[in-house]
Amino acid sequence: MSLLSAFTSARSSLAAVSQQSNLVSRNVANAENPSATRKYASQSASVFGGVSILSVSQSSNQALFRSMTAANSTVAAAEVSYGALDSIRAVIGDTDSITSPASRLTVLDAALAQYAVTPEDPQTARAAVTAASDLAASLNATTKAVQAARTDADRQLADAAGTMNSLLKEFEKLNGRIMAGTATGQDVTDEVDRRDQIVTELSGYVGLNVQVRSGNDMTLYTDSGITLFETTARTVEFMPQSSYDAKTTGNPFRIDGVSVSGSSAGMPIKSGSVYGLLTMRDETAVAYQGQLDEIAVSLVNAFSETDAGGTNWSGLFTISTDGSSTDLSTITSKTGFAGLLAVSANVIATPTLLRDGDISGKGVVYNTNGTAGFADRLNDLLSGLKEQRSFDGSFGAGTTGTISDYIASSISWLEDKRSTASDEVDYQSTVLSRAQESLSNVTGINLDEEMSHLLELERSFQASSKLISTVGDMLDALLAIV
To answer: Which of 2, 26, 240, 244: disulfide with 150, CB 3.0–4.6 Å?
Structure first.
């Protein structure tokens, strides 16, 4: 090797070491950043000796990345479901909670039984009416909690739409820079890291199908096939309701003009927080509200008063907005009754009407003689609470049983949903953690390895410097001879 070749080789090696050292420094600086991947230089031997840096690359594994984003979508759906169910359960408690409809019904049953034993006692009459008011209030509060959960789901959906649009706009800009940089051989590894981070964030909202095309171009679709990004970002649209009651229907959540859930959705999404929120708002909460309404209707029927013409009128419990008695045969929809349920103002003013009748004000008197010891009506009401009734099975809490049975079944249904969501969060969080760990092991930055690499570069730098120094000494010796 000539002195010139040796000098050229050493100088190119020094340049390569300098560039690689910069990459190691970048890696070390990002060692605590979970979104950063390891950067490394692709080298080539020079025809004149030494090495040169062809390009900067990064560690990647698309299969593991897809597994991680899929797990992230599943966890996000489970977390929002569990959060909403837990907020409802916090209001009603379990079957043993004093504030639950189950406990309130038990208290009412006991108060009625005591009133039947001492029908002449106005205090026991008042206690029975108070117990009925507490039961109605419990169902009212639970209805408010259910509708609050739906309102909160709408708020989160609106936030999700706004955030997704912002992320997609940033993604579009990054994708353009990455494609342009790839075409001209520039280092775009940091931009790719940020693009992947955006994909991870988006996967928390909807399940994704990610494809990398030629030129480092990336496309995004939902797990149902709706386009999120292909060349340009698509628009995410959602208009929240200002508030919810049992009869309110939520607005659709649209991506690229396509509804992602509900009976009108041709391509419903399957995971992500948006999926979890829509399922809670439109299915789970609606079903539980239906169960509450079934309980309310059964209570109205159990304490109704039948006039001489055979018409059943609401008695102790009313479901009209003005508190008046209702002809039960005219009811065409039970939706929202749990929120309307109240104790008649007539019996609040005169608790003994519970014993004597005509709470409805329709002339339905049971204690025709006005006897203080009359208990027949109270015993009939107690029997009515233990009567087998039919319920709408489409809401998931059973079709037949006593009111107490149905309330217990409803609470069990809610607890099963909540427990299942909790288990899903725990399991899928473990899956996500392992997926993140596997991806990090392949693409992440290992500080020990980087420091070891830095030592190797230092030795290479010293060797190249030594060679340049030696060449310099030899040239000096030659010049001295001349």
So the answer is: 244
Helices 122-184 and 101-117, packing angle to 10 deg: 170
Helix axes 189-203, 122-184, angle to 10 degrees: 160
Distance CA 228, CA 125 (A): 64
Contacts of 91 (CB under 8 A, 6+ apart): 99, 141, 142, 144, 145
Pairwise CA distance, residues 429 & 277, whole Å: 18
Kindly tell me if the per-residue pLDDT of 476 is higher than 70.
Answer: no
For the chain, the farthest-separated pair of C-alpha atoms sits apart, in whole angstroms, at 144
Q: Do the Cβ atoms of 41 and 53 come closer than 8 Å?
A: yes
Which residue from 6, 300, 2, 60 is spatially nearest to 178, judged by alpha carbons?
A: 60
> In sequence order, what DSSP letters do the residues of 413-472 get, joined into one string?
HHHHHHHHHHHHHHHHHHHHHHHHHHHHHHHS--HHHHHHHHHHHHHHHHHHHHHHHHHH
d(CA 358, CA 351): 11
Give the pLDDT score at 47. Answer: 52
Tokens of 82: 């569990």
Rounded Cα–Cα distance for residues 54 and 395 (Å): 65
pLDDT score of 172: 97
Q: Are 297 and 234 in contact (CB under 8 A)?
A: no
Question: By the 8 A CB rule, do 251 and 269 touch?
Answer: no
State residue 455's pLDDT score: 60
| Residues β-bridged to residue 56 | 41
Q: How far apart are CA 438 and CA 67, in angstroms?
A: 10
Query: Residue 202's pLDDT is what?
Result: 98
Q: pLDDT > 90: what percent of the chain?
A: 68
* Residue appearing with tokens 């020990």: 448
> Any long-range contacts for 433-440 (C-beta under 8 Å, 24+ apart)?
435/64, 435/67, 435/68, 435/71, 436/34, 436/68, 438/64, 438/67, 438/68, 439/61, 439/64, 439/65, 439/67, 439/68, 440/34
| Residues 246 and 147: beta-carbon distance below 8 Å | yes
pLDDT of 337 above 60: yes
Q: Which amino acid is at 1?
A: M
Are 294 and 392 within 8 A, CB to CB?
A: yes
CA-to-CA distance for 112 and 357, rounded, in angstroms? 14
What mean pLDDT comes out for the span 24-37? Answer: 66
Report the candidate in 354, 244, 340 with the shortest Cα–Cα distance to residue 296. Answer: 340
